[in-house]
Amino acid sequence: MTLSAVFMALMLGTAPVHSAGLQQPVAAAAATTALDPGEFVWQPEMATAGAVEIVVSVPLQIAYVYRGGTLIGVSTVSTGRPGHDTPRGRFEILQKRREHYSNLYNNAPMPFMQRLTWGGIALHAGQIPGRPASHGCVRLPLEFARHLFGVTAMGGSVHIIDGSPSAQTALALVRGEQLAATEQPAGPVLAGGTQ
């Protein structure tokens, strides 16, 4: 997905792209390439009220964040590497901790942890190398994880999918809403059912 597509989806011509390696955000108007690992767009002012829903596309290694059905953020992610697959389906946020350490993997730090399963799967800040590299969790850039932690609530919905939808179609897709023929994504959408 190109940055221009992300920003068109956000309906912003000047949305900043944030990167862990930059002192200043990159202006969207100047951006013409895909989001690099660790980059994200965060525009919470696009919708100030409503439930927050997150859609994570494993093939795209992208997370879309919606509030009240309006896209407010897009981020690169890192999901589970081979042998440590990230489960697919619909999950609720079961627990939130700003500071958390893994019980399973050598006390590894998991900042801004939002638990999705009692078996150890969570959203949290971590390295984003541009490919699946986690032990099954969904890693997020640190600043994006901080922003996301601030807007989510216990019981909030997180959809992890095998599909590659656009930001415009992802939420409708996981909700089972009818898409126009021109909005149909390619490939499978959900696998593994609901949890």
Explained architecture:
The two termini are 28 Å apart. The protein has a single domain, classed as L,D-transpeptidase catalytic domain-like. The chain has helices spanning 3-10, 142-151, 170-175, and strands at 16-18, 26-27, 40-42, 52-57, 62-67, 70-76, 89-92, 95-97, 113-115, 122-125, 138-140, 157-161. A hairpin with a 4-residue loop joins strand 4 and strand 5 (62-67). The longest helix is centred in the C-terminal third of the chain and has 10 residues, at 142-151. The strands form 2 sheets. It has an 8-stranded mixed sheet with strand order 2-1-3-6-5-4-12-7, with helices on both faces. A 4-stranded mixed sheet has the order 8-9-10-11, covered by helices on one side. Helix content is 12%, strand content 25%. It has 195 residues and is α+β, with helices and mostly antiparallel strands. The protein is built from 3 helices and 12 strands; from the N terminus they run αβββββββββββαβα.
Outline of this structure?
The protein is of the alpha+beta class and 195 residues long. The chain has helices at 3-10, 142-151, 170-175, and strands at 16-18, 26-27, 40-42, 52-57, 62-67, 70-76, 89-92, 95-97, 113-115, 122-125, 138-140, 157-161. The chain has a single domain, classed as L,D-transpeptidase catalytic domain-like, CATH 2.40.440.
Relevant CATH superfamily = L,D-transpeptidase catalytic domain-like
Predict the CATH topology. Answer: L,D-transpeptidase catalytic domain-like
Oligomer: single chain
| Number of extended strands | 12
Question: Roughly how much helix do the residues carry, as a percent range?
Answer: 10-25%
> What's the pLDDT, averaged over the residues?
82
- Encode the helix/strand succession as letters: HEEEEEEEEEEEHEH
Class of secondary structure makeup: alpha+beta
Write out the strand line-up for the largest beta sheet, numbering strands in chain order. 2-1-3-6-5-4-12-7
Overall outline: globular
Number of helices: 3
Tally of individual domains: 1
Q: Spans with pLDDT under 50 lasting ≥5 residues?
A: 6-13, 21-33, 187-195
Q: Report the CATH C-level class.
A: Mainly Beta
Radius of gyration: 16 Å
Q: Which percent range describes the beta-strand content?
A: 25-35%
Q: How many strands, which pairing sense, and closed or not: the largest β-sheet?
A: 8 strands, mixed
- What is the CATH architecture assignment? Beta Barrel
